[in-house]
Amino acid sequence: MPGAAPHAMLAMKEYERLAFHHAPDATLILSERRILAASLMVETVFGWSPQELAGKSIRILYPGQSDYELIGQRARRAMQERPFYSDARFMQHKSGQAVWMAGRGRALDPADPQRLAIWTYRPLEAGAAADTGLTKAEMRVAGYLVNGFTSKEIGLALKCSPRTVEVHRANMIRKLNVRNSFELVKHLLASVPP
Length: 194
What we know:
- The protein is an alpha+beta fold.
- The protein folds into 2 domains: 6-124, Beta-Lactamase (2-Layer Sandwich); 128-190, Arc Repressor Mutant, subunit A, CATH 1.10.10.
- 47% of the residues lie in helices and 19% in strands.
- The chain contains 9 helices and 5 strands, in the order αββαααβββααααα.
- The protein has a 5-stranded antiparallel sheet with strand order 2-1-5-4-3.
- It is elongated.
- The chain starts with 5 loop residues before the first helix and ends with a helix.
- It comes from Pseudogemmobacter humi.
- Residues 127-192 form the HTH luxR-type domain.
């Protein structure tokens, strides 16, 4: 702010710091997928304090290496085309419990999306999943389906065979009374809150 009084600029920086630390969603600033800073809500959502996460790879928040790699690749490709990316995915709480999350990211350099990015995470309602009548295993598969993963990729992430993934997909199609995988994904996406 040219011409602004020094105390006004200091106050603005303090407001920006407060806004980040007290953001309503778990918010991370990442560089090369390492956590530079974490908001206070991160502890509520993931169980880790911001200090515990500082300097760590975001891999710590993923249930497995495959999830970390596959979601990272998809997000990087998407953010090279547009600055924002969002999806629903499984993340991991400090306790080891997998949590269904809405993830949103913004690359500050589209040419190199992982150089510096801001990510927010919000747990999705477990009740919405329960209303579908799907099992926990089916919900895990559903999380990958809505993000466009193939059966092979889902099998790798979940450490099961692609055939097992196909069985879960067929069961979901039957339970949700849809005709095919396209309608299944459409139905699943409609049940995820914005």
